Amino acid sequence: MTDLADPDADALEQDAADLPSDRYFDRELSWLAFNERVLELAEDEVVPLLERAKFLAIFASNLDEFYMVRVAGLKRRLATGIAVRAASGMLPREVHEAILAATRTLMARHAALFRAQVGPQLASHGIEVLRFEDLGEAERAAVAAVFDERVFPVLTPLASVSASGDPRETEAEQAQNEFGTALNHDDERLGKAIEDE
Question: How much is the pTM?
Answer without folding.
Answer: 0.66
